[in-house]
Fold each of these.
Amino acid sequence: MNYAGEKRFTIWSSFSLVILAIFALFIIYPLILVLCKSVIDPQSGNFTMSYLTKFFTRKFYWSTLINSLQVTACATLLAAAIGLPMAYVMRSVKIRGSGFLDILIVISYLSPPFIGAYAWIQLLGRNGVVTNWVNTIFGIQFDGIYGFAGIVLVFTLQSFPLVYMYVSGALKNLDNSLNEAAESLGCTGFERITKIIVPLVMPTLLASSLLIFMRVFADFGTPMLIGEGFKTIPVLIYTQFMSEVGGDDGFAAALCVIVIMMTILIFLAQRFLANRNTYSMTALKPMTAQKITGVKNMLSHAFIYLVVGLAVLPQVVVIYTSFLKSNGGQVFTGGFALQSYQATLFSKDNDVIWNTYMLGLVSITIIVVLGILISYLTVRKQSPLNSALDMITMFPYIIPGSVLGISFLFAFNNPPLLLSGTALIMIISFAIRRMPYTIRSSTAIIGQISPSMEEAAISLGATEMKSYTKVTVPMMMPGVLAGAIMSWVTVISELSSSIILYTNSTQTLTVSIYTEVIRGNYGNASAYSTILTITSIVSLLLFFKLTGKRDISI
Amino acid sequence: MSVSIDIEEVVKKYGNDTIINGLSLHVKPGEFFTLLGPSGCGKTTLLRMIIGFNSIEGGKIKVDGRVVNDIPTNNRNMGMVFQNYAIFPHMSVKENVAFGLRMRKVPENDIDKQVDEILKIVKIDHLKDRMPIKLSGGQQQRVALARAIVIHPEVLLMDEPLSNLDAKLRVEMRNAIKSIQRQINITTVYVTHDQEEALAISDRIAIMHNGVIQQIDSPKNIYQRPVNTFVSTFIGLSNLIDAEISKNQGCNASIVFDHGYCVFMENIKDTVKNGQKILVSVRPEEFHIRSAGEGLKATIKSSVFLGLTTHYFVQLENGQDIQVIQDRDEQDIIPDGTTIILAVNPQKINVFHYENKTTLIRGGKE
């Protein structure tokens, strides 16, 4: 597929080199620095294992890793246990308003998990609405769900949509004739689900579960807000690095290394499983949702509505709270007012929304331009250089946001690369973090464009560069733009790296929500969250309009 | 024991659209019966009504005299081979074939025996432990067939099973299917849109068009004595040429073409009247090309040499374009522009009513 096989060095090679250099500077270099800091004593400059030993010898530290693994495993299993039956029911039974429910599910997935955490605190926390209600009715002293239960609740409700979307996509590729064949051979009902459907979607279920595992494992905001005494490892990293008294760089770096090791393990497990059992299926006639009657119908509806209801409940709570009247601080005084919006949206010197949009848009532009180029290089111009590129650009995929944030501060805190505190460092971190997703979707799109398109253009007298810009890029554009919208939504709801990298002048919506929640000012936090939610919904509608689809694959 | 299938006045509706309105047919025990028609004619719909994937809005379907309308698919004991085979991708060949037996709670060692036996019949016993992804199209087809017949169904249903195979494999597989069907003597309903396949494989064919059966007959009769112009042009190539009946009182009729070419017919119905307009259907291979004498005057526009035969595109005097096929050894290729005379064989041509397009040949059904 390499037309210019004879010419060793082309314009494409120089692109490869430049991109490789960018990634080396912004991924490899900071990570190496983290690795170094974790094993080198800053005073003597000698090799030391003291940081790592410190972690593994003190229960206070290593228990966070156990906590993280427990919470993650529980939430992942529960998410799979909810997402799988939901996908099957939605695909096989006609549910009233299923199109709308789909949108609600996507919205609940796209909102940052920590918003769910603080919304649930308002309901089930120490002073939550539901808590107070339960305590008065039953005369008990329920203390609210903090710690393990709270984290698992929030993560489960936040993660099942991913399983749902993936499995639903797999079911769409499952030809109905498989169901019919099973039926004609005497296999129906529940038996058909366990013998045919579940084994066939199992690879997808595993893949999506591992994605969730990675996401939940790396999430910082939720356990920080609802965890209280129950500390997970991302919380430990943040507190170790940020604590004003004796923030310990070396120890934080060691923690980062441990976390990266874990995520690499999960990533490799996912790769292994995904390669092992995938069935390439294409459906001529996909399953269609059937109208059913009676108890089954009622149960299906009840199940779907209940789960979707719980999933969007945080959003509803947040929007409701944003209109409550307060004393300007932490106490709601009853009645409704637009006060929270006056304090956030219309207050002067408040660049939060502008910051979010500006940083997000610049990042997305970089992501799209580089993403298209990188995927083109790795698919069409296969060479050792581009294989390296392929591998390095996937790296950010397995690096948790807080780790990336810390490594950036290590690397770019001194001249000549003094970037910390600038908007640029935020943009670079956004772009680097979301790049793998765009590269993956663009790679899939290029795979569907026949190389003969470009060959045709070249045979008609276009240069390679012309055929790329005039033929390939325009053909990719609709798919890439759709992917970019999804990336945009995830960029604006990003917290774990921006909480480490932000300064007052680069504060984003999510950071503001987080700091307002920490201050206890739920009114302002809710107003910010509502703005974020509305932005996500508008983006989502744009996505649907652009793709003409109702499905989302992330 | 083989069973018969009786379809009596069945109706299929999707919402307000009636796809099939009162269709009846009878499949004899052990027969290889084919539903043939263009896409959208309702043949697959009818097949899926027989197995129970489609509901029946009116009429009855009987198997061995029992009405099956309300029996769920899994209790109908019918085997089906799907267009895309529907091989379970997560099961090996053996597991796929054993699936139906397991559902019937057949003891495990019996399953092994029956699976081995059936895999030998379809000639893929060496692929027993393969996963479906490692099978070719033809092999997948054999697995699908084995899986459908291993459960000893009363009826075997096949929905365009060969349409995803390449031309050569298609011929090989249709011979395999026919011989296996003979071997186990099972009543089979086969759906296809490929007329050659239907002619090659079937005991009888039902030609369907717009949800209505046009003709049910043996492949030979369907080809040689189509009941209407739809069948005559759908099966094989037919040239339809305008003509008139010429008939003296009491005598047999002749047909007269535009420019006076007159052919005496022995098998035309008595109901025809003198001067009645008709359509004459002539297969391209049934023309005799002459250089002089009685016949239709025509000019050769172009020709295609196909090895076994030569294909001529010719124009009649009235401007109509028709096709003529000649055997290789009949004569050298006639150059373009040559004027020829085309004679027809009165025993082989078919004559249709000008308005309602039905046959006017005696013995043909209306």
Amino acid sequence: MRCFCFVMLLLFTAPLSGCLETLEPITADEEGQCAVLDAGRTSDGVLRILTYDIAAFSDEMISTFTNQTGYDVEMIRVDDSGGILEQLLQTQQAQQADLAIGLDNTYLQTALNFCLLQPHELNLTGLSETALEPYDGPNAVPFDRGDVCLNYDESRVDGTNLTEPTSLWNLTEPAWEGQTVFPSPVTSSPGRAFMSATVDYFENDEDNTTDAFDWWKAMAENGAIFTSGWTEAYEIHYSGGYGAWVEGHLGDAALTVSYCHSPGVEAFYGENWTQSTSLTLERSTFHQVEYAGIINGGTELEAANAFIAYLLSEEVNRNMPENNLMQSVLDNATWPETNGYAYHTDSPSLNAEITNERIAEEMEGWISDWKTATQ
Amino acid sequence: MSIEWKARFAGVPLIHWLAVIFVIGLGLFPITLALVRLWAVTGITPLEALISVNEQPGAMDAFRFSLFEATVSTGLTVVIGLPLAWAFGRYQWRNIRLKRALLFLPFVTPPVVAAVGFLALISPGGVLYNIGFDLRSESGVVGWLAAKTGWEHPGHFIALVTAHVWFNLSLMIRFVEPVVAQVNPVWEEQLALLPSGQTRLGRIQHLWRPVLGPATLVAATYTFFFSFTSFALVKWLAPSSNTMESLLGEIGGTAGIPGYRTETSLAVLAIATFQMLLMLVMLILAGRFERRHSQVLSMHHETMNRERHGPASRRWVLFVNGILVLLLAPLATVVLSSFRVRTVNGAGVSSDWTLEGWRRAWNGDFSTTPLLEALTNSLSYAFVSLLVALPLGYAVASSLVTLRQRGHQRAAGVLDSLCMLPLSMSAVMVGLGMVAGILQWFPQMFSFPYLPAVPHIMLVLPFVIRLMVPAIERIDPVYGEQASLLPMGKVGFWWHTRGAFLVVPATMAASLCLAFSMGEFGATFLVVRVGSWDSLSILVDQVASRPKFDPYVFPTAMALATILMVVTLLVLSINESARAWRSRHDV
């Protein structure tokens, strides 16, 4: 028996002898340049797109692209924007997809630092300057955008029970105890965007003795609910949104993080009726842009370029508000008037001003501070 | 090499030994690679990480919650399941096969379907909500309980525990019912003549406790194990809490990436090691109980026993049928919800009947994988799992039986435990092994189209072995001795001495394999992040998780869940046909 155990031990530990040598990630050199990596798989004529569950990519939309260009498309879906970055990092040595769609500006710089994207070959025109503000380099192209901001339930924030906050500090007052829900910046893209906005907000307020994490600590002490994702926060806990009519709804929070146009979307599907509205305090909102980028190590590069061009075409991108519930990145983009979509959508007066580079540099530290503050 | 060494291998063909090594390797390799990978990324050994487990955010809360809910779930399952199994095994029942299939149904229902079924049951408009039991928003009695005790979310806890009991009741039936049905009536008669057999308590103490104890403990151990490692049910029914399993699922995606979120890799390393050790202890306990249990089985003919006790009393009929109705309620709710849509406008809420959810599910209007593709994926993985797991499971079971028959009990015990390892790792750990382990060092596997079948095979193999071992043990060696005197080839000899006797258990194992693979969620949930292999259970989760600004999202998810449920039921019906065939032919 001992002999058998010894053989088994040898059998299973011998192959691991070389495994403890850490695999070094590929990163940009000191000048920020990245080598173009070899293709991670053999070309088979199928464009593989790494994305999350983006509603705009319907069968019909993909079929039209295939009919127009002749390229077949296969989707590799992950949970969210963060999942795309993780997938790209995990498969960096042998990328299996050609095009990443859905990285937002809180993740983009990290992807660039790790040389996960390579330059496209498109001549881009007609994109709005606002969409190009966070990044206008060759490695990623914006395809939709929206402003992340606080949403509240007007039926509860009625001036009597709760009053509309004029400062984020108002939310730490006793009246708001247990009435707020936030998606975690560790696992949620809107949560990450909003936390970044709070950093800028508290750096620019009148009080120099406190920072964003003091506020997060005070929020946690005031019974704020933290969820892993946007869906749990908005659908299960937030009382002002569609969740009220969905199985499993709790409705214990009057305020949450979503988009400034979420009330517009509520009205669009609710026959011009919603009890949700957005709170656009200066610098508490975050201009989120989502990008398409050709993967460094991708195989079907021509097809990937063609898909980006298709994604930015008038026929697809102009319809983003209806098909993807986000704003188009084309010049002169507007929200639809149907069912009060535009009427219930607010525009922030001043978004948080925080660069992609700073986000990439400091995000891990912020997340660590956020965890400490909210524990 | 000693003579003893040779003798230990003599009875087991080399190919079976290779199967044993392959199965153990399949279980050990990914998780070992994952642990070593996490070690390399963090620079911290699993042992050091284990010591720091209490410092990992959420780990201790998750541990306490897992322990508490698993203990309560196990207790309740035993309290409800034991009388159910006793009554079901003791008396004659009409449509016993149908009832047995229905009692077994929850165990093979994909957890994600069960979760959405329970959600529909406890949400406004659901049966429980309508009778004033608000487990979701925790108003009324449940709210009062929360306010009085200071217990956070008792409603979510009750919903989760109820779902676990619903899920695991079939384990009690599976393990305890055959013992009750086959217990030798002479024992009862003899005990009735003794002073200690004159009272109910005395009969429980001197007959039923020693006879049913081991089987009950085995079922309880597995119930505890499945509740402790619960994933999909926790995700949906107790959103404010985490088991260690769901916590690992939440953070596992970022683990094992060099230079990126190292603290997450450390947390995964610590929690995974801790959970694995815990489960290992559970596994050893379960193995010990199961070995004791296997000595009690096959004592008397079941049909004669049932005839002796006659039909059940009205009280027992009500109890068993009542449980059956309760077991079917969440599944019926899933079907109903696929035809209902809630709409809202300034005038208020309305609820209408609709086929739109089914239309969208069929047409794949959403950006997710089309229904037929997801169904094809699910069935492909299930059949690949079956084709690999069944012969492998047979070879391993055959080896274990041979070793036991030749007196190598200890070696058989060790190998048996090693083969059960994937069960101890739980689905998310297996998935993590795939993502952070094999795929990190062998990225070529990314292009392997049946990749999700690999963790499925790992997870179903222990069940196949568990079914095959007793079936092979029951074969009388006299058949082999007699067949060896007849002129027949190797294949013919194998068929007449073994194969023919294993048709039914093999069919049952096949059905279990298919159903288990169809509904598997945890491992696929992680593996699916690194490939385009959405199965039907993942599709249900994807659609159900989508923002529901559009009111037809939920009916669509329910329609998909219904399809998954029906397909799984079809597979299960094959299983019950095999049992029926066995009853008719009594092989």
